[in-house]
Design goal:
9 helices
Length: about 260
């Protein structure tokens, strides 16, 4: 159970960041505060303000609330450690590193919660072996419904890479896609989820040209990205494969069918 923000207990014998609740705890607290389960039951309906409740909107709400919870606890840590004379530069460096690393994990956990809500089967961070005699391999963020399903029939499963901040990380996704395609063939479903309003047209097109089959974009970036895409001559090659983040759950269920849904 997530700790209340008012109960962020500080023990200065620990490292500063060890006093901050885990990412999972913070997300659970945000879910409870925003009554996300109720919102998920009303997906694609309008709320009291007339706005449609979409997965993209829910993720954004959860991220913002989780960050508020984190910042409040971080401030408590800062005050306590400053009061005992802890080195301020060292403290800020520690807090900054923790804050940066938590952003991506927060989005992955929220994405997991949505997969669970839709009843979609998945495995996280499991190895897909490339060479029989080497235990290491590729480790995508999500495989739907499972590694075994992917290895038995690669075209009937989905490999998903999830990035909160895309930056240069889309190049890592291309590298992984090329390795998997060399092993399992071109007809595999490798999807990239970039919940980043700064995702560039170049990175989107480059991914689609180099092994990524579909790109899912935060709803707030989708329209402007499509408008940019309209300006290039071969836009029709890419348009069907750039989709709104809110479409991904229905798209998953359409591709994997009943075998990808829990209880089947």
């Amino acid at each position: 159970m997530a700790r209340s923000r008012s109960k962020c207990e500080i023990n200065t014998e620990k490292k500063p960041t060890e006093n901050i609740p885990s990412t999972s705890e913070i997300v659970e607290e945000a879910i409870a505060k925003l009554k996300i389960d109720e919102l998920l039951d009303k997906l694609f309906e309008k709320d009291g303000s007339g706005k449609v409740i979409t997965p993209s909107r829910i993720v954004k709400m959860l991220e913002e609330e989780a960050f508020k919870i984190y910042k409040e606890c971080e401030e408590q840590v800062r005050k306590e450690y400053t009061s005992i004379g802890y080195d301020s530069k060292k403290l800020e460096q520690s807090l900054q590193q923790a804050r940066f690393s938590r952003g991506g994990r927060t989005f992955e956990i929220i994405f997991t919660k949505l997969l669970d809500k839709f009843g979609i089967k998945y495995e996280r961070n499991k190895v897909i072996k490339i060479y029989d005699d080497i235990t290491e391999g590729e480790k995508p963020d999500f495989i739907i419904p499972s590694v075994d399903s992917f290895c038995e029939n690669p075209s009937s499963a989905i490999v998903i890479t999830v990035k909160r901040k895309v930056r240069e990380r889309w190049r890592e996704a291309i590298g992984e896609a090329q390795i998997l395609r060399n092993k399992f063939g071109d007809n595999i479903n490798i999807w990239f989820v970039g919940f980043d309003e700064k995702l560039s047209l170049y990175s989107a097109v480059a991914m689609l040209d180099n092994g990524i089959k579909r790109i899912y974009v935060i709803n707030g970036r989708y329209d402007s990205l499509i408008k940019e895409l309209e300006s290039i001559p071969n836009k029709d090659k890419y348009l069907p494969n750039i989709r709104r983040f809110s479409d991904i759950f229905e798209d998953i269920m359409q591709l994997v069918g009943d075998k990808g849904v829990r209880g089947n």
